């Protein structure tokens, strides 16, 4: 699975642990900020309405420059 994400995201990018990923994605799916986007109800295309990021990819990255635009995580 890590190899799959490294092919999508790129080599050398630190990946989030499974626990951190689940914590982040659940915060996004709760939609407390009101900007969560999933028009076709497919988890593959979930997006952040603020920054436009695909949540499955953004939440997998564990780098200092990756953050929620509303500071939820």
Characterize the structure shown.
By secondary structure, the protein is mainly alpha-helical. It has one domain (2-58). The chain has 3 helices and 2 strands. It has helices at 2-9, 18-30, 55-58, and strands at 36-37, 47-48. A two-stranded antiparallel sheet has the order 1-2. The longest helix has 13 residues, at 18-30. The model has no long low-confidence stretch (mean pLDDT 88).
The 3D shape can be described as globular
The fraction of residues in strands falls at: 5-15%
Largest sheet: 2 strands, antiparallel
How many helical stretches?
Answer: 3
Unreliable sequence segments: none
| Count of spatially separate domains | 1
What does the radius of gyration come to?
12 Å
What is the spatial order of strands in the main beta sheet?
1-2
Distance between the termini: 24 Å
Mean pLDDT: 88
The helix fraction, in percent, is 25-40%
In total, the number of strands is 2
SSE order, one letter for each helix or strand:
HHEEH
What oligomeric arrangement do these chains adopt? single chain
Structural class: mainly alpha
């Amino acid at each position: 699975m890590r190899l799959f994400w490294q092919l999508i995201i790129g080599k050398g990018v630190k990946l989030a642990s499974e626990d951190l990923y689940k914590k982040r994605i659940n915060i996004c799916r709760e939609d407390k900020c009101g900007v969560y986007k999933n028009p076709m109800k497919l988890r593959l295309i979930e997006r952040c309405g603020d920054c436009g990021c695909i949540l499955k990819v953004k939440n997998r990255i564990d780098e200092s420059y990756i953050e929620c635009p509303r500071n939820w995580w």
